[in-house]
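Field reference: sequence -> structure
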Amino acid sequence: MARRGFTGVGSAALLLSLCVCAGPVRASDTDPPQTPSANAPAALDPNAPKISSQTRLAVIRSLQAERVFAKIVVPQGKEGLKIKDGKVSPSQMAVAQLVAENGAAAKPGDRCVITNVEIRDKEIIFDINGGPKKGPKWYQRIEIGSTGGTATLPSSGNGQSLDAHGTTVKLEFDRYVPEMTGDQVRALLAPVFDFHALTTEEAYEKTLPPKVQEAIKNHQILVGMNKDMVMYAKGRPPQKIREKDDQGREYEEWIYGAPPEEVDFVRFKGNEVAQLEIMTVDGQKVVRTEKEVDLTQDQPEVAENKPKPQPQANRPTLMRPGEEPDYKSTVPEDQRVSTQDAQRPPDGTANPDPNGVPAGRQPVPVSPPPGPGAQGPPQ
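Structure field:
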């Protein structure tokens, strides 16, 4: 018994010493090791100077309002995610805890928008989907002055909006933010965001002819485009008018620009651009009416090319298998109609006969009922 007790005490001491030597298990120890992105570290020059004010503006303009797709789960709140040397922090378990507490701003495959870019000394901060919090509305900051003082318009709730579902993603650097281009910043954000996935606009452009794709890319309008293509190329028109031409036919015209800049008058015939009139800056007038792109050439729909209806197979019949009809109809089978369809008057047409008899038929005389003392029909 003493030997067994000594063995139990020794085993407990050995287990305690192993736990002390091993130390506490951290959440980051259970995560798989992250390797730096293949594009991010190699894209930057370690000896590059500090970013200039001109480059700051170029980077902000390049990434502001950029649409991206999330590659990993991004938690809501001001904590957000941090990227340094191609590694993402916090750990996966910490991100799961943040998502459980605050919710997810984006899941893998979700589309996000970079709503703000701020470049500081050692980091670049990106607000995603509006950022982690929103300030008061513009009408909540209006003050009305009078002789008795100033008064702020009443607002519902507190100054902070409760519908903030965004987050932040930070790019951190050791010494300072170096000189870089917008594409290099996109490469640094590659562990979190995908900039190469097709948006709805890009997917739509892929279905168009190459000439139309090039025109939309250069923000040009071609005669023959439809309204969707014009909106993809130039955006929503600031002004629309409806007029009649010399022949009294109505048309719709979209107007882009205002003097002294170039002004485009896009005239539609139905859903298609029929005329493009351009007033240049130097006062010249350019009118184009010849169709520059034909969208119906690839998929023509002509009545003669449509396949004829085929006879319906396995029609219900009362004949036994192998029996032939007593007579042959001269009407093709695909043009035959049933007896009920032949007797039914056309829909929406008034009956010309007040007695209720369809046109083309003679009413059948009906004998009046026999009166008192009249003999019935012979038996």
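Note: Residues 14 and 371 are 124 Å apart (CA to CA).
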